[in-house]
Amino acid sequence: MEKRIDGEKSACSPADKQIDLSTVDQCARCGTCRAYCPVLEESGWESANARGRLMILQALEKGLPADSCVRDSLNTCTTCGICTENCPAGLNPPRLIEKGRRKLVLSGITGPEHETLASNIYQRGNTFGDPGDRLSWLRDRGLLREKAEYVYFAGCMNSYRYKETAARTFDLLRRFGVTMLPNEQCCGSPLLRTGFAAAGLMEENRRQIRQIGAHTVITGCAGCYTTLKNDYPPQFQVVSVAEFLDERISEMQKCKEQYTNQKMYQNINQNGAQNSSPVLNLRRLDLTVTYHDPCHLGRHNRIYDPPRRVIEAVCRLVEMKSSKKDARCCGGGGGVRAGYRELSLQMAKKRLLDVPEGVDYIVTSCPLCIRNLSDAGAGEKVIDLVDLVAKALLDDSNPNWPQRKKP
To answer: Which pTM value belongs to this model?
Structure first.
């Protein structure tokens, strides 16, 4: 299946059609993954967990005709990676499953929802097919720099559905010299996870990053993070907003320990000159929150402690029943939210059962997790990490943030 972005053919190589059977054959068929897979927990079918899906991949390579049942088996994987975390053979089933999805798409076998998702991205550069301005939340384009060392990559969800979070994030980051891409495109994650090509989008984003001269890309979306870090060529460093804020807060705390007068530190250095080092002035909040680990930030990239340190710098943190490497998936990733909404929400409802009683907010670092958990019953109780930090910010310089648009 051939798709186009900006008149350019999407990349397709012979390797796209091949599944590494030597890797698939390493599966010991032990069934350990059955004890962890959130999709299997909902459906009960062997074809809905990693072991069953790997058997299907093996059969596809040996000539099994693909049909809608095969499609549904492979496409209901959220790519959460909990099977990878617990696989005794050390396999990474989500990566193999993505290869299988690519094979299906190239054979013309895909669901209408994923076809629409891909079409939206190819035609409009975002998952919603929204023809509007991706930077409509940015009140002053004069804040964008032509050259900078750091770039904030907002992603589709924050750009079009959680605009106030994008505005708050950029307001925090721009203090440290961070700019944005003037024509940011979808990172390509929804395409790659569902078997479609994303070469054109990825190259356009890379071109703009090179033009700006940035060596680091900062993103507040777990899907964007894992894609920029693991699927793009290693031409720049990728950090999450949680990591960036954690470093800045750590620097601030060290400065407070070194200088007893915080106002003196901000304005005067030892030589009596102005000190232009930006500082985040945060107050302690009388709140208790819990943290949901996004799969593609946590298990896929081991970013567990930075968001927790940021939270503990401003309020009290109580862990969920399952957390960090054992965290239950929200059910939204891997294209499952788009293609199998009810299944996705069933998994999200299970995740909400892990929330401790009495917490004020569920904090996370992924807008797709926010959307799915919110729709599953959490509502406005689930917020982005940046939203929490914004509540603690003493020198709020952007009070007129746009209001949240209901997904």
So the answer is: 0.89
